[in-house]
Design brief:
alpha/beta; Spore Coat Polysaccharide Biosynthesis Protein SpsA, Chain A; 7-stranded mixed beta sheet; 3-stranded mixed beta sheet
Length: 337
């Protein structure tokens, strides 16, 4: 079998239908159903209509995640249970909140083979709604682009590794050789950890921004965004408190300099301070453009700076002081790690 698509789903009734529609639509164009590919949805203890939606799609295999072992994350448990039953030469792990462009599956497997990599991961186009989500998300993705440049991640001579669990395509043999998701079972940031294992074992990886292939709506509400990034930020960035300090400096310059200019007594000093402010504003927006978000969202991001600072601090606090994070009704602790 050519490809197995594995979708872990926990209370994803709002998203799963769109994801499966985009995948099933490709079956006649790309593969012969039930011969060259398969779609596996793993219901991870959902209490909504996730399972009902999954079984409504003809040809989709629906599994129930096994009981959660001690120290495993729910996502790793769900994926690993499906991976062991999957038949594909390539295994695509994708989230229920993704929507796949026509022909995406065929192009992705060809891209991985063309570049001779064992793992291909896409950073999807992010779909956002709501003022505060639109203001905060570009800031986070700009910093991710700076911390994990795709050209460095894809360079086999560099140790830097990254992947996005929203779209992670792995070749079957090296995936199982390194232990698959069982090897990262206790890791909240399982996608990056898995990419690190691939690279450490000298299996080449490729990572890129791919709006041509897949889009994702990570969070539909502001509280969901807070919970999600609280879980991840302290793990994604080596020093979240230092990053927060730099962004606090941005906040001080962007809002403080105009106030300072207002109170200065002479036009010369006012003009000098405003020139510094314009230079700071230009530098700030140049950095936010790395997020690949629309211009309007980048412009809004200045309002999201205080929330981003708080998220960095709170994620660090939960990781290093409380040593516990919550996600989708489950608690994961770091006390024994």
């Amino acid at each position: 079998m050519r490809l197995s698509v594995i979708i872990p789903a926990r209370n994803e009734a709002a998203n799963l239908g769109g994801c499966l529609t985009s995948l099933v639509a490709q079956q006649e164009e790309i593969f012969r159903l039930n011969q060259d590919w398969e779609i596996i949805v793993v219901d991870d203890g959902s209490t909504d209509d996730t399972r009902k939606i999954a079984v409504s799609f003809e040809g989709v295999k629906v599994l129930q995640a096994p009981p959660l072992p001690d120290k495993w994350t729910g996502k790793a448990n769900a994926i690993w249970s499906a991976a062991q039953q999957a038949q594909g030469e390539w295994l695509l792990f994708t989230d229920a909140d993704t929507v796949h462009e026509p022909g995406n599956l065929r192009r992705a497997t060809h891209e991985a083979e063309h570049h001779e990599v064992a793992m291909l991961s896409y950073s999807p186009k992010q779909l956002v709604s709501g003022f505060w989500t639109r203001a905060v998300m570009p800031l986070i993705f700009a910093e991710l682009a700076a911390a994990y440049p795709p050209e460095k991640v894809s360079n086999p001579n560099l140790r830097l590794a990254a992947a996005n669990g929203q779209f992670l395509l792995a070749k079957r043999e090296p995936y199982f050789a390194i232990g698959g998701h069982k090897a990262v079972a206790d890791r909240v940031l399982e996608d990056v950890e898995l990419a690190t294992l691939f690279k450490r074992r000298h299996h080449p990886i490729r990572f890129r921004y791919a709006p041509d292939a897949v889009s994702a709506r990570m969070y539909r509400t502001f509280p969901q965004m807070i919970e999600g990034w609280t879980k991840n930020l302290a793990l994604l960035f080596a020093n979240p408190l230092m990053l927060a300090a730099w962004r606090a400096l941005d906040l001080l310059l962007l809002f403080g300099l105009p106030l300072l200019a207002w109170y200065l007594p002479t036009l010369l000093w006012k003009g000098a301070v405003l020139l510094i402010w314009l230079r700071s504003l230009w530098r700030y927006y140049r950095s936010v453009q790395r997020s690949n978000f629309p211009v309007g969202d980048c412009l809004l991001s200045i309002a999201g700076l205080p929330i981003f600072l708080w998220l960095l601090w709170y994620s660090w606090f939960r990781r290093h002081v409380v040593r516990e994070v919550n996600w989708k009704g489950r608690s994961y602790n770091f006390r024994n790690r």
